[in-house]
Design a protein that fits this description.
The structure is a single chain. By secondary structure, this protein is of the alpha/beta class. It folds into two domains: 168 residues, P-loop containing nucleotide triphosphate hydrolases (Rossmann fold, 3-Layer(aba) Sandwich); 100 residues, Orthogonal Bundle (Helicase, Ruva Protein, domain 3). The protein is 46% helix and 16% strand. The protein contains 14 helices and eleven strands. Strands 2-5-8-1-9 form a five-stranded parallel sheet. Strands 3-4 form a two-stranded antiparallel ribbon. α1 runs antiparallel to α3. The longest helix has 17 residues. The radius of gyration is 21 Å and the shape is globular.
Length: 315
């Protein structure tokens, strides 16, 4: 626990004004899941993941998704070597511990799908040969909500592979002033990392998260939340006609894992309904589809989830 607390403190000194992003990254890491981040450019998404990779004995691969990107640009490819008349596999950027998929919706589905096997199975198959990836493997994909022209919407199946979908916004004036001070100090001297975490430290922390207790009543509460996205009218008239498609079973699994991780980061060994509510937006945001009627009434996904939480009471 101490190692994770120290990691959290260090990250918050390197990424100012984005405590939620730092917390969500740590939860994804503790739950062995992947993270989809949506926010305007220049709010430290790249810096956050780089600071995380610098804090751990790990490597970072960054891919800028563009319309002309090919799947082999991610996975690698078999290259013919004339000197020995043999094909040699040249590894792509996915063969790193942490992957930053920058503006993932800039590339078509064929390229995006190259991530699916890596995210789900931690392996890549090229030319019939399967290559294993690092046991400690995290994909953080970003989306720019401002420019949507020329983008390719992620499929529902791919979205469901992400453990969490978090939204980041601009920092406050106070935080931005601290950012300027930090950058000025970094121009003269860089704050060294005293000791990097070993992968085994994170594996041990994951075991501790798995041991966090969840009462059966809290478990029933989170299951009711997921069920309300599928059969909203059974819980309240306010939810009638809001959800076209509800969250999948992966949502329930994600709720279970992330609620425990959230409690763990709060230095508790048990989960409360507040922990479940704290994770509800990031767990459900990318797993629900609203009806056309709800959208025409100006109801967004965050609005729908907030209404759902007000209608489903803790048992």
């Amino acid at each position: 626990m101490e190692a994770i607390q120290n990691l959290s403190k260090y990250l918050n000194t390197q990424v100012l004004g984005q405590e939620k992003l730092v917390n969500t990254m740590l939860i994804s890491l503790l739950c062995d899941g992947h993270l989809l981040v949506e926010g305007p450019p220049g709010v430290a998404k790249t810096r956050a993941l780089k600071a995380l990779s610098d804090s751990i004995e790990a490597t970072l691969g960054r891919v800028q998704f563009t319309p002309d990107l090919l799947p082999s640009d991610l996975t690698g490819a078999q290259i013919y070597k004339a000197q020995n008349s043999e094909f040699e596999f040249i590894k792509g950027p996915l063969f790193n511990t942490f992957i930053l998929a920058d503006e993932i919706n800039r590339s078509p589905a064929k390229v995006q799908s190259a991530l699916l096997e890596a995210m789900a199975e931690k392996q890549i198959t090229v030319s019939g040969q399967t290559h294993q990836l690092d046991d400690l493997f995290l994909v953080m994909a970003t989306q720019n909500p401002i420019e949507q022209e020329g983008t390719y919407e992620l499929s529902e199946a791919q979205l469901d592979r992400f453990l969490l979908h978090t939204e980041v916004d601009y920092p406050s004036v106070e935080s931005e002033a601290k950012i300027l001070q930090l950058l000025r100090s970094e121009a003269h001297h860089h704050t060294p990392i005293t000791e990097k975490l070993k992968p085994q430290d994170l594996f041990n922390a994951r075991d501790e998260v798995a041991d966090v207790h969840m009462d059966s009543q809290v478990e029933l509460y989170l299951l009711n939340i997921v069920q309300a996205t599928r059969f909203g009218e059974k819980y309240s008239d306010k939810l009638k006609g809001v959800f076209e498609y509800g969250a999948s079973t992966r949502a329930s699994i994600a709720f279970d894992k992330t609620s425990k991780a959230y409690a763990y980061l709060q230095n508790r060994d048990f989960v409360t309904p507040d922990d479940v509510r704290a994770m509800a937006f990031d767990v459900l945001r990318h797993r629900i589809i609203l009806t056309f009627d709800a959208q025409t009434r100006g109801i967004g996904k965050n609005d729908a989830i907030a209404t759902l939480l007000s209608c489903v009471g803790a048992v």
